[in-house]
Every structure is written in C-alpha cells, then in structure tokens.
C-alpha cells in the first residue's frame, strides 16, 4: 500500500511557532472536502510545503472550523471554490464571523494571473481549481513543461508549458466515481488498489477486474497526456500528481512524476503573493 498521510478531519495540524504579523488563510473548497492552511505571506512556495497550520473537513463539518480558526489573526483570505453557491454562502458567513476585519478574495479563472496565461477558448469557463493548481505548478517548476494531474472526485489532466501557458487538458471521472459507476462496493477500493500492480492487468475476479480497469484508465490518461505533449513539442515533460486518489495511482505510473499534495493551496499562496488587483 503506498504511503499517504492520515486524513485530517475537523482537527488541524499546526506548528508551534509564534504567528507572524501577516497571516493568510488559504481555502480550497472542493466537491467533497474543504482543505485549508494558514501561511505567512512571505513563505516561499515549495514542493514539500510545511504550513503553519492546516486541516481538512467534509462539507457537513464546516462549522467545526470556527474552533480551529478563532485563535488566529488573519489579514487576507484567499479562496478557491468549486463546491457551489451553498458552500460559498457558508464560508462567507464563517469567515465574516471569525475574521470580520479580513479581506476575502474569491478566485476564478481569467486570461492571466500570477505569471500564468490561460489559453482556454473562453478563459472564464476553466475551473478555478484547475487554473490555481496550474499557477502553483508553474511557480514550483518554472521553465519546465508540466502535466498536472489532480485526482479527486474528478480527475483532471492539464498541460502547462514552461513558458507559462495553461494549454488545456482532460476531465474524466475520478477513481472512486469510476468504480462506483459499476455498482460495486467502492469502500474496499483503496485496499484492493494498493495490491494491484501493472503485471496484473488481466484480473481473474470481478472486483479486481474493476479496480484494474479503473486504475489503468486513470493512469493511462495521465501517461497518454505526457507522451502526447512530448511528441507534439519535442520537449521532456514532468508529471505533477495531486489529490486524494494520487497515492493509489502513483505506483502504476511509468512516466517521470512527482507527488505534490495540496497543489491548490500552493497556488493560492502564489496568487496571494502576486497581489493581483
């Protein structure tokens, strides 16, 4: 089974250092969970980020964040939200209650932001989380052509050029959603996924056949994107993989790759440091 960190619920993980004067709250509101982190505005974005404090809750647990947040003094809040208007309303209420003096910035896709140009045909239609992940990826690996795979409720596979352009990508059902569509018990998916390797593509039982098909559909899309980019551009590419399902896919990737947890939070930090209008 690949190593992954223990999921964080309403309880947060925090450092013991004194809070800096200029603290940012970064929020990634996804389809299933809301991830957040506290960071010093001057913190350098890194591939292995160590946040001042961070946590993750499901949507029904959102109100529990008041306890985690109330001990902080926050000047700015930067938010990516793909969870819809109801979650946005709840976050607005919570942030206003806990941090009444803070400025709240809701990020959506645009033509250019924080050093990344958006080449989508209609830039505003690109999911904000995809754009912000791409911003974080480009900041971490400038001048490097990248395939950014985010594996959550949905799996997105996006191309980011070393010159700083979001070129486009693919969207497919996430690992759990894909398996669930076959009407099987997906609760066992992580356990089975951890024991399915590339040498066992042709499973001899239905449960493992479903898992094998789902894993190889996911990794196949990622590896095809890497191969296609290199073939089209003649340049080597690095795959960055993030999201809750990433640990189950990583053992089956044969392309050059690096696991970057919480890439949206990193992208939010980069945007906050760029101080957009």
The gist of it:
One of its GO terms (biological process) is coenzyme A biosynthetic process. This protein is an alpha/beta fold. Helix content is 31%, strand content 25%.
Structural overview:
The chain has 277 residues and is of the alpha/beta class. It has a domain at 142-266: ATPase, nucleotide binding domain (Nucleotidyltransferase, domain 5, 2-Layer Sandwich), CATH 3.30.420.40. The protein contains eight helices and 13 strands. The strands form two sheets. It has a seven-stranded mixed beta sheet with strand order 7-8-11-10-9-12-13, sandwiched between helices. A six-stranded mixed beta sheet has the order 1-4-3-2-5-6, sandwiched between helices. A hairpin with a 4-residue loop joins β10 and β11. The longest helix is centred in the C-terminal third of the chain and has 28 residues, at 206-233. It is globular and about 55 Å long. The N and C termini lie far apart (45 Å). 42% of the residues are buried. Residues 1-11 have low confidence and may be disordered.
């Amino acid at each position: 089974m690949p190593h992954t960190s223990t999921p964080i619920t309403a309880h947060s993980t925090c450092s013991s250092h004194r809070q800096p004067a200029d603290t940012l709250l970064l929020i990634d509101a996804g389809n299933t969970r809301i991830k957040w982190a506290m960071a010093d505005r001057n913190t350098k974005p890194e591939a292995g980020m160590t946040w001042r404090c961070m946590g993750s809750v499901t949507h029904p647990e959102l109100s529990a964040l008041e306890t985690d947040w109330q001990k902080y003094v926050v000047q700015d809040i930067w938010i990516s939200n793909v969870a819809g208007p109801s979650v946005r309303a709840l976050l607005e209420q919570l942030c206003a209650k806990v941090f009444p003096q803070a400025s709240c910035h809701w990020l959506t896709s645009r033509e250019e932001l924080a050093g990344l140009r958006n080449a989508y045909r209609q830039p505003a239609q690109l999911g904000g989380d995809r754009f912000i992940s791409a911003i974080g990826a480009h900041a971490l690996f400038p001048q490097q052509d990248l395939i950014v795979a985010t594996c959550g409720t949905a799996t997105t596979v996006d191309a980011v050029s070393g010159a700083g352009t979001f070129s486009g990508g693919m969207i497919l059902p996430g690992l759990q959603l894909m398996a669930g569509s076959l009407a099987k018990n997906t609760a066992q998916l992580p356990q089975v996924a951890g024991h399915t390797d590339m040498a066992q593509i042709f499973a001899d039982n239905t449960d493992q056949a479903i898992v094998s098909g789902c894993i190889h559909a996911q990794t196949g899309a990622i590896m095809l994107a890497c191969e296609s980019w290199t073939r089209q551009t003649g340049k080597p590419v690095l795959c960055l993989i993030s999201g809750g399902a990433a640990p189950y896919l990583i053992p089956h990737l044969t392309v050059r790759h690096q696991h970057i947890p919480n890439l949206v939070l990193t992208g939010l930090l980069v945007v906050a440091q760029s101080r957009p209008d």
